[in-house]
Amino acid sequence: MENSKRRDLYLKIRVNQEELDYIDRKFRESGMKSRSDFVRAMIYQGYIVKFSEFELKELIRLARNISSNINQIAVRANSGGKIYDNDIADIKKGVDQLWQPLRYFQSQLMSLHR
User: Fold this and answer.
1) Residue 112: is its pLDDT beyond 80?
2) Which of 70, 72, 98, 110 has the fewest CB atoms within 10 Å, i.e. the most exposed one?
3) pLDDT computed for residue 114 by the predictor
4) What's the predicted TM-score (pTM) here?
5) Contact in structure between 29 and 42 (CB atoms under 8 Å)
6) Rounded to whole angstroms, how far apart are CA atoms 103 and 95?
7) What is the separation of C-alpha 81 from the centre of its chain, rounded to a whole number of angstroms?
8) How far apart are alpha carbons 38 and 45 in whole angstroms?
9) Could you read off the pLDDT of 34-91 as tens digits, one per residue?
10) Closest of 24, 18, 49 to residue 39, by C-alpha
């Protein structure tokens, strides 16, 4: 093996038992023969995906608003009340607001697979 390709340096990291068990489980699931090869593959080919906590909370808020609107309409409809066009329009508006950031997240995740 060329000198530049020789692996003669040692990398040591500290982990607790739970972390080691998790790494070992992922290593076994990978089907790879060597833990060193597994770690190298994760370093070179693995992904770290970070989403903004604010953005995720906003998605949850939008989904809850839509759910609340639907529940209110269902209660009204089940009690013999009328469903108005504005009710449906509010739900459609909420869904549109929710899909925009979801599509963004989807595009970010899809770009990882290219």
Assistant:
1) no
2) 110
3) 52
4) 0.53
5) no
6) 12
7) 40
8) 10
9) 999 999 998 988 877 777 888 889 899 999 999 999 999 999 989 988 888 998 998 9
10) 24
Determine the Cα angle at 69 with ends 64 and 70, to 5°: 100
Tell me, what DSSP letter sits at residue 11? -
- CA–CA gap between residue 5 and residue 53 (Å, rounded): 41
Q: Is 89 exposed, middle or buried (0-12, 13-18, 19+ CB in 10 A)?
A: exposed
CA-derived radius of gyration, the chain? 25
In the chain, the amino acid numbered 104 is Y
Give the residue from 35, 17, 16 showing the smallest Cα distance to 26. 35
Using the 8-state DSSP alphabet, how is residue 49 labeled? -
- Quote the tokens at residue 72: 């209110």
**Smallest Cα–Cα separation from 71: which of 86, 58, 87?**
87
| Residue 61 amino acid letter | R
- What is the SS3 assignment for 111? helix
